[in-house]
Amino acid sequence: MCVFLSLEINEICCAVSDGRSLLLSACLVESTEARLLERDVLASRVREVEEENRQIRLQLSQSQGLAAQPVEGNYGNQQWAASADTGPEDVENTAEERANHSECSRSPTAEKCELIHVACVCAGHNASRDVVTLVKSILFHRRNPLHFHFITDTVANQILSTLFQSWMVPSVQVSFYDADELKSEVSWIPNKHYSGIYGLMKLTLTKALPSNLSKVIVLDTDITFATDIAELWAIFRKFTGNQKQVIGLVENQSDWYLGNLWKNHKPWPALGRGFNTGVILLYLERLRRIGWEQMWRLTAERELMSMLSTSLADQVIHWNSPKKLRVKNKHVEFFRNLYLTFLEYDGNLLRRELFGCPSQASSESTELQHALEELDEDDQCYDFRRERIMVHRVHLYFLQYEYTPTDDGTDVTLVAQLSMDRLQMLEAICKHWEGPISLALYMSDAEAQQFLRYAQASEVLKNRKNVGYHIVYKEGQFYPVNLVRNVALRNVNTPYVFLTDVDFLPVYGLYDYLRKSIVQLDMANTKKALVVPAFETLRYRLSFPKSKAELLSMLDMGTLYTFRYHVWTKGHAPTNYAKWRTATTPYKVEWEADFEPYVVVRRDCPEYDQRFVGFGWNKVSHIIELDAQEYDLIVLPNAFMIHMPHAPSFDISKFRSSPSYRYCLTTLKDEFHQDLSRKYGSAALKYLTAQRNI
C-alpha cells in the first residue's frame, strides 16, 4: 500500500507499509486511487509509525550512559533504527562491543575504499562557513574516499573552491554545480521559509548531478556527524531489489512538528511529525527511471492549489547552528559539545592519508611534494625555505560581504593583515576609513571562532558589510606575513589598493582624498605609488588630529613622532618629512635602501615576496619590486597615518634574540637580490650595491 505522508514540497514522498521501514518507494502521481486515499487510512498509518518511534525512544532512554556513548550507539542510531530494517550483518558485534553499547544495533559500513558521494546545496557567506563544520565532522570519522558535490551560488563557489584547493585533503574530490542554472526549476514555487529558493533545490538533484551518478547522500549544511558516514551509505544496501525503493528519510524527532505545544501552533502541514530532509539517501538511478522530475512537479502543482505556499523546508535540530544550541533537550550537552568540538577543530589534522586506499594525487599536491623533496634538510635555513612553499588553508569572506563598484573607476581598498592580538584595532579602522577593506587574518580554527563572536558582538563591525575578512589558518612555526598580505591583496574588488598595516589609523577623510588624488595624478595611465606619510604616538589615549595643521602642532609638542625615527630611521626617512611640513602639492622622492613606505597603487601591482616571513624585510622587498618596475614614488602633501602603540610581536622578539634567525634573513636577502638580477639584469645592481653599503 502506498501512503502520501507529507504535503511539504521539499518532502513529497510515499512510504511502503512494511513494518518499520521508511525507505521510500515511488508512487505514480497519476494514480487516482492514491490521490483519493481517505484521511482515516492516512491517520491510521501515521499512528502506527508514531507508536513504533515511541517504543524506540523509550528503549533508548533506558540505555545506560546514553549521553556518554558514541552517537552511533544512541541518538544517532535512534533516527536510523526508525528508518531501516535490521539486517543479519548488524548483529556481528562481539560480546565486548555489545556490552559497551546500547541495544541499538550498529549499521553495516561501506566496502573498503568504496567512493562515497555527498551532495549539499550551499549559498552565501554564512552557509559556506557552516558547511566547513559539517565537512570536518565527516573527515574526522571517515575511512573511505569521498566525493563532495556542491550546488552553489557564485559566492559559495569562490569560498569553497579556494578552501578545498588549499586544504588539500587526500582521497577527497570536490565538484561544483551552478545553482543559478537550477533556479528556474523551483522559482515558481511560493516559499515562506528563510532558506528561500535554495531549500527547494534538492528536488532537482536528479537533473543537476551527473547522469552516471547512481547514489548520493544529501545533507543540509547545518549537520554534524558523530560517526562514520559509511554507516549511512551502507543503508543503500537495504533498498529492495525491486527498483521501487528510491528515497531514504527519517521521521522528525521533535514534538514541535506535531503542532500541539501551544495554542494555535501549526508549524507543519502534514499528519504527524512529517519527514526530515536534512539527511536524504537518493537512489538517483532509480529516480530517473521512474520520472522523478515530472512526478514532483505534478504533485507540487496539485498541493499548491490548497496550500498556496510552502512554509517549511529542510531544517531540524541538526546541532550545527548557533540558534540550535539553545534548544532544550536532555542530550543538549552532548550535542553542543560535539558541535563545538568540530567548530574549533584544527582542520590541518584532517589532511591524513587513507592507508590501503590508493588515490590519485592532485597536481597541486604533486608539485608541493616535488618542491619539498628538493629542499636540503641539513640546510640551516630549511624551515624558512619550507615555509615559502607551504600551502595554508584559506577561507575567503568569512563574514557577510557586500560591495557596489563606483561609477568613476577610482575606488580604493584598504589592504592589511592581522593576527588575534590586533583585533582591538578593527573598530577604530572602520571608523577612520569608510571605503572597502580587505583584511587577511592569520588564525587557528579556534581563534577564527573567537573572531566571529567578537565581530558579531560589535555594533561597528556587524554594520559594516564592505569589509572582506579572509582567514589564513595557522600552520608551521613562522608568521607568513607576506603570504597573508597577498591573500588580502588578491581578493580586492577595486582598481586601486592602499597597502597598510592594521596598527595604523588613517586621517579622517583619507578615503575621499585618495580617490581625488588618483584622478589628479592620472594613475590609470601611469605607474605611480602614492606615499602616505607615517607617524606614531606612544600614547594609548590620543586626541586624533583632524588636519595636517593639528598634526604638525602635536609633532612640535612631542605628542607625535615621525614613524620609527628612534629605532629605524632609514625605513621612512626618504619620505622627506621636512619637505612634507610645508608641501602643498605632491612631490616625487627617490628609492633608498630599506625604504618601506605605505603606498597606494593599482591593484595589478607586484605581490609581496613570500620568502620573507615574520619580522624583517617583508615590506622593503616589495618597495624594491615597485621601484624595479619603474613606479614613481609620489608623496601626498595632505595625507597621513598614525601608528598606535602595542606590545611587540613574537617574531620581532625572535629576530632580536636569535642569531640563526638573523643569519637566515641575511641569506634570504642575498637570494632575493640574485633573483632580481636574473629578472631585471643590470638595472638591479643598484639594490645590491645599496644593501652592501649599509
TrEMBL record:
Single GO MF descriptor: metal ion binding
Q: Where is this protein chiefly located?
A: Golgi
What catalytic reaction does the record list?
A: 3-O-[beta-D-GlcA-(1->3)-beta-D-Xyl-(1->4)-Rib-ol-P-Rib-ol-P-3-beta-D-GalNAc-(1->3)-beta-D-GlcNAc-(1->4)-(O-6-P-alpha-D-Man)]-Thr-[protein] + UDP-alpha-D-xylose = 3-O-[alpha-D-Xyl-(1->3)-beta-D-GlcA-(1->4)-beta-D-Xyl-(1->4)-Rib-ol-P-Rib-ol-P-3-beta-D-GalNAc-(1->3)-beta-D-GlcNAc-(1->4)-(O-6-P-alpha-D-Man)]-Thr-[protein] + UDP + H(+); 3-O-{beta-D-GlcA-(1->[3)-alpha-D-Xyl-(1->3)-beta-D-GlcA-(1->](n)-4)-beta-D-Xyl-(1->4)-Rib-ol-P-Rib-ol-P-3-beta-D-GalNAc-(1->3)-beta-D-GlcNAc-(1->4)-O-6-P-alpha-D-Man}-L-Thr-[protein] + UDP-alpha-D-xylose = 3-O-{(1->[3)-alpha-D-Xyl-(1->3)-beta-D-GlcA-(1->](n+1)-4)-beta-D-Xyl-(1->4)-Rib-ol-P-Rib-ol-P-3-beta-D-GalNAc-(1->3)-beta-D-GlcNAc-(1->4)-O-6-P-alpha-D-Man}-L-Thr-[protein] + UDP + H(+); 3-O-{(1->[3)-alpha-D-Xyl-(1->3)-beta-D-GlcA-(1->](n)-4)-beta-D-Xyl-(1->4)-Rib-ol-P-Rib-ol-P-3-beta-D-GalNAc-(1->3)-beta-D-GlcNAc-(1->4)-O-6-P-alpha-D-Man}-L-Thr-[protein] + UDP-alpha-D-glucuronate = 3-O-{beta-D-GlcA-(1->[3)-alpha-D-Xyl-(1->3)-beta-D-GlcA-(1->](n)-4)-beta-D-Xyl-(1->4)-Rib-ol-P-Rib-ol-P-3-beta-D-GalNAc-(1->3)-beta-D-GlcNAc-(1->4)-O-6-P-alpha-D-Man}-L-Thr-[protein] + UDP + H(+)
Give the GO terms filed under biological process for this record.
protein O-linked glycosylation via mannose
Put simply, this protein is called LARGE xylosyl- and glucuronyltransferase 2
Q: Which cofactors?
A: Mn(2+)
Answer whether the UniProt record assigns the keyword Glycosyltransferase to this protein: yes
Role description:
Bifunctional glycosyltransferase with both alpha-1,3-xylosyltransferase and beta-1,3-glucuronyltransferase activities involved in the maturation of alpha-dystroglycan (DAG1) by glycosylation leading to DAG1 binding to laminin G-like domain-containing extracellular proteins with high affinity and in a phosphorylated-O-mannosyl trisaccharide dependent manner. Elongates the glucuronyl-beta-1,4-xylose-beta disaccharide primer structure by adding repeating units [-3-Xylose-alpha-1,3-GlcA-beta-1-] to produce a heteropolysaccharide. Supports the maturation of DAG1 more effectively than LARGE1.
Could you tell me which Gene3D superfamilies the record lists for this protein? Answer: Spore Coat Polysaccharide Biosynthesis Protein SpsA, Chain A
